[in-house]
Amino acid sequence: MRFRNLTRRLDIGANSYLFESGKHRVLVDAGMDPKETGLKALPDMGPLPHRAANAILVSHAHHDHIGALPVAQRAHPDTDVFMTEPTGEVGTAMLHNSVNVMTSQREEKAITEYPLFTHRELDENRARYVYRDLDRPFELPDTDITASFHDAGHIIGSAGITIRQNGGTLFYTGDVNFEPQTIARAADFPVDGIDVLVIETTRGNYQRPADYSRKAEKERLAALIRETHEANGSVLIPVFALGKTQEVMLMMHELHEEGLIPEMPLHIGGLGTKITVLYDHYTDRTRRNYAGFRLLEDVEMLVPPRRKKGPARRHIEYEPRAIYALSSGMMTEGTTSNQFAARFIDNARNAVAFVGYTDVETPGYRLRNARPGEKIRLAPDQHEVPVNARVASFDLSAHASREAIAEYVEKVRPKKVLMVHGEPPAQDWFAARFAETLGRETEVIRPEPHMAIDLW
Ligand SMILES: [Zn+2]
Ligand SMILES: [Zn+2]
């Protein structure tokens, strides 16, 4: 069994990985790089000839894992795509949104290759979607390979993937959280009999304070919301439409029930609403906390979102003493949170609360790291705005801490660890830790793009 990283760069970009054994080829994830545009945003599928994939497996429905799936399916039209049912259904909504975003970018930014796929293609592609439950091994067509999905605790439907062939076993964590979030429960991963681990390393560069607790972090967020409310301001929480929007909705509900924040209107954005409908649809059928709870009906603070067709970028009105959970989480140019922030951060009564990962080079990162009063530009076509609002960050990530991932690897004690989905400094931390804890028993590998790595 041989591994190749099809990501173009060593960071969190267009995740896609190829597993080859003899004539058999399995593609795991086909993501798009959120920091790139046009064809550069796609993985480099060069080593995978057309129509050669026996199966495509998708870990979860975030853009950096599923965004290029239609492009992969065009190259492998007869290949089945295996995933959990929520990943397939939520992924479909994400990809349709992606067509809308690409279509407007084609005009705004003159990216002539956009859209890279169409709504019609997405409808046709569904014929190849094959849904599999968690923890049930299944065979990949015309191969001697079996696979299984295991709850990754990251977002709805997210799964780590086991691949077994000829006595060898590998496990790909995908994006994982080993601690429970508000909705998502902790990952439920296998630990025995794994020869090779492919791990995400997103937070390797982040040192969590020794006295960290999620509860204290939520209380700190509640205090910011209370103080902002008292000051007659509003709170903007930039969130991913998928996962973080729903987590924040339920968190606000909890904080209000606990008497930690006052009754105040909660606004969510367009794509976030569509995804929330699916979270509610699966409320009894996915492993989660608050099973049966319906976000759109049971979160009383929620301002009922207006149903509207078209791209999820409608103008959001500002009102004082409200909470805005708007996507995107990294405040990417052209998104609702980016546009809203331009009219929001110059008001000293307001506050911005970051609750997730922001990549360097993104507007979210710039705002998060700005000095009070510093003028920043959120998008090239916008004026500079002074950062007068309070800006605070909270460790409520959907990704595991680096310690939790390291402890998992140390429990598994695989022969090989392949590090993906992280910046080089993040991987340096893991490499140093494993050199101490695993020694020579485990080979620690950073797979360069396209480098062939023999697993067994
Ligand atoms: Zn993810
Ligand atoms: Zn990811």
Structural description of this entry:
The protein has helices spanning 63-66, 69-75, 85-108, 119-125, 214-230, 244-257, 270-281, 295-298, 336-342, 363-368, 402-412, 424-437, and strands spanning 2-5, 17-21, 24-28, 55-57, 80-83, 129-131, 138-139, 145-151, 159-165, 168-172, 196-200, 235-238, 266-268, 323-326, 351-354, 375-376, 385-386, 390-393, 416-420, 443-445, 453-454. With 456 residues, it is α/β, with parallel strands linked by helices. The chain folds into two domains: 2-206 and 398-454, Ribonuclease Z/Hydroxyacylglutathione hydrolase-like (Metallo-beta-lactamase, Chain A); 214-393, Rossmann fold (3-Layer(aba) Sandwich), CATH 3.40.50.10890. The model has no long low-confidence stretch (mean pLDDT 95). It binds zinc ion (2 copies). One zinc ion is lined by residues 60, 62, 154, 175.
- In what range is the share of β-strand residues? 15-25%
CATH class call of the largest domain: Alpha Beta
Which ligands, by name, code or SMILES, are bound? Answer: zinc ion
Shape: globular
CATH topology of the largest domain: Metallo-beta-lactamase, Chain A
Specify Rg, calculated over alpha carbons.
Answer: 21 Å
In the CATH hierarchy, what is the architecture of the largest domain at level 2? 4-Layer Sandwich
Oligomer: single chain
Please describe the biggest sheet, giving its number of strands, its sense, and whether it closes into a barrel.
7 strands, mixed
Number of helices: 12
Number of strands: 21
Mean pLDDT: 95
